[in-house]
Amino acid sequence: MIVAVDGPAASGKGTIARAIARHYGLPHLDTGLLYRAAGLALLRGGGDPSDEVQAVAACALTGVDFADPELKSEAAGGIASQISAYPGVRAALIERQRVFAAQPGGAVLDGRDIGTVIAPAADAKLFVTAAPEVRARRRFDELERLGMKLPFAEVLADIEARDARDRSRAAAPLTMAGDAHLVDTSGLGVDEAIARALDAVRARLGER
Ligand SMILES: Nc1ncnc2c1ncn2[C@@H]1O[C@H](COP(=O)(O)OP(=O)(O)O)[C@@H](O)[C@H]1O
Ligand SMILES: Nc1ccn([C@@H]2O[C@H](COP(=O)(O)OP(=O)(O)O)[C@@H](O)[C@H]2O)c(=O)n1
């Protein structure tokens, strides 16, 4: 069984995807981490993000530590959003995502294009969203907890810029799949959002 969870930055898609994976005993892949890791490798290597060839080379992801806290930074999110618009970068990362999705027993993946490009035949698809100010507040709090405090206005501006870029790019833009279920978490706490999402997945799977 494949569950696809897509949505904009800090909408709560990772929280929901992890909860669904736990509930069904499935492996989970945060696909944003792949783009963040490629972006960070490029930056650390002194590469030029405006050069697609260099960005594609960074997608080898050799020796990447996916637990590196720097991957959670807004800088990594911004560079990820920039290089993820390159068709060559998307092509370089597609295979490992599809292999992960196709493993025996199934998987849960979250990102921007899981239901539309990576796993269009997923058994259940969710599109998780929330108002930009709500998402910025969550990301602001999260960054503060991680010791990466930024002005709120800067976090909101970053999120809005990233949303605009992710939605308008030609290659696999952020968009809700026609057969996805919309979960707006703006007024929902974590437990409530997870409960709504699980209800939607159960309904989609015909469990009730
Ligand atoms: N429904 C919610 N209500 C309040 N905070 C939430 C909710 N969902 C997620 N969060 C918090 O918001 C932050 C971003 O959530 P996350 O699931 O990582 O989002 P995404 O994967 O979309 O970037 C995390 O700190 C998370 O704990
Ligand atoms: N499947 C995916 C996942 C992320 N991305 C890109 O990678 C960036 C970082 O993704 P993320 O999921 O880690 O970001 P957050 O939602 O956690 O802020 C996004 O802004 C997208 O540009 C993508 O293009 N496709």
UniProtKB/TrEMBL annotation:
Assigned keywords, A-Z: ATP-binding, Cytoplasm, Kinase, Nucleotide-binding, Transferase
Output one GO MF annotation: dCMP kinase activity
What Gene Ontology terms describe where this protein resides (cellular component)?
cytoplasm
InterPro entries tied to this protein? Cytidylate_kin, Cytidylate_kinase_dom, P-loop_NTPase
Q: Which reaction does it catalyse?
A: CMP + ATP = CDP + ADP; dCMP + ATP = dCDP + ADP
The EC number of this protein is 2.7.4.25
The chain positions of domain Cytidylate kinase read: 3-202
The EC category is transferase
Q: Name one Pfam family in it.
A: Cytidylate_kin
Q: Origin, by domain of life? A: Bacteria
Would the keyword Repeat be found if you checked this record's keyword annotation?
no
Residues involved in ATP binding = 7-15
Q: Where does the record place it? A: Cytoplasm
Q: Which GO terms describe its biological process?
A: pyrimidine nucleotide metabolic process
Give the record's family classification: Belongs to the cytidylate kinase family. Type 1 subfamily.
NCBIfam families per UniProt: cmk
**What protein is this chain from?**
Cytidylate kinase
